[in-house]
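Recap from last week: sequence in, structure out.
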Amino acid sequence: MWQPANELEQKRWEKLQRLREKGIDPYPRRVERTHTIREAVAAYEAAEAAASAGENEPETVSVTVCGRIVSHRPQGKSSWAHIEDGTGRVQIWVKQDNVGPENQKLFNDDLDLFDFIQAKGTMMRTRRGEVTVLVESFRLLAKALSPLPVVKERRREDGTIERYGGFTDPEERYRQRYADLAVNPDVREVFVKRARTVNAIRRFLDNEGFLEVETPILQPLYGGAAARPFVTYHNQLKQQLYLRISFELYLKRLLVGMYDAVYEIGRDFRNEGVSRKHNPEFTQVEFYKAYIDYRDLMDIVERMLAFVAEEVTGSTTITYQGHTIDFTPPWERITLRDAIIRYAGIDYTQYPDAESLAAVMREKGKHPGPDSTWGKLVDSLLGSEVEPNLIQPTFVLDYPADISPLAKKKPDDPTHVERFELFIAGMEVGNAFTEINDPLDQEERFLEMGRLYGEDSEEGHPVDEDYLRAMRYGMPPNGGYGMGVDRLVMLLTDRPNIREVLLYPHLRSRED
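Predicted structure tokens:
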């Protein structure tokens, strides 16, 4: 049973008991509300504007609003407070002449910061110019037993309110996101923009003729990416299952089933490290379209992200961590080979095996991983030497085949495939292929990955016999793109850490 943990909670608990002794339900079942706070303020400002045009007094605007008390200034027979709901904030004025002595005392003595109340009254503007509800009656809706972190306020010269203090420890903010949201409007705005981002992606793809679908999260065989899966077990079926690491193979099955263009927005799960760019559970969008290749995908991606940026921020130019980033197409396109030459000074195609490439990397002060394949060494150069330099949206093209088992090989170079990754602000955001649609080639590629990488390697890709069977029925030529939505939201909200754009990021247990 909960017990007050400190003096503040003890005082609130005592007020709760006092309210109940007075016959007041501190958590009533029914609520009245005629206006959100935003609607109430807008209605009064509209009445003011109409009155000003006719040079009359504003018509009376009667409202019943609800919200959390975020400032509380009891002053005897005339008290002030501010309340907030999910749409805005408004001042309320509680006068004994209007509510009576008993209710005035209740407002002053038994209500606290962060309680939820309902206030009925008429709208007005104070001498200082602040829109206010002159309260005729009020009712407690929910008593807050634990005080939220205190957010202090000061009025700027222009009359607006500046907030400071409150939650400052990032880990505690993530662990108690509900409290973080309650006291930090800027954090709430991040997740409003996140919702707008997903909505804009969906509208763009719908308008492009893509069909939104859902594919299994629990899969008998994982695939579609280089990642370690989470493993679970279905007791009744006596079957080991995996949380999906990608939508890819299930979406491409639908192209066999005669859908020309499909997409999915949802969760993927990868049993990998946590960092400022990685969370084990994350949101992706993947889309696949028949009769296109990776060149066509670049056009779609450019237009999609320019559209999303405009819809979410009002501009195709954003600021991210001090960098001005322009989403206006066209974006730079550079081959992986040229990018590594430019930023690392190594032409890896001159070193056609892992041993010779690792040797030249060591000569240049790099530290190649032991037992890495040629493709993994190339990828490590991309990550360490190239990626941090790619600030403006950039497509890096044509990757080694041994790290791209689902992409078609280039017709003039079987060591490379038609693949690109998108980089923005020094961060990989998306990945795309001209997809293999030859079932025999795909089977050989799966087998080759098994020979190159051990069974426990994250780079290995299991042979999915059902996927190969689907391909043998005939799969149209197609291109596909996958993008981390969380990283895109980081860019659009200027947040440096993925945890800032996840409502409930994964954290270590406190005992660790």
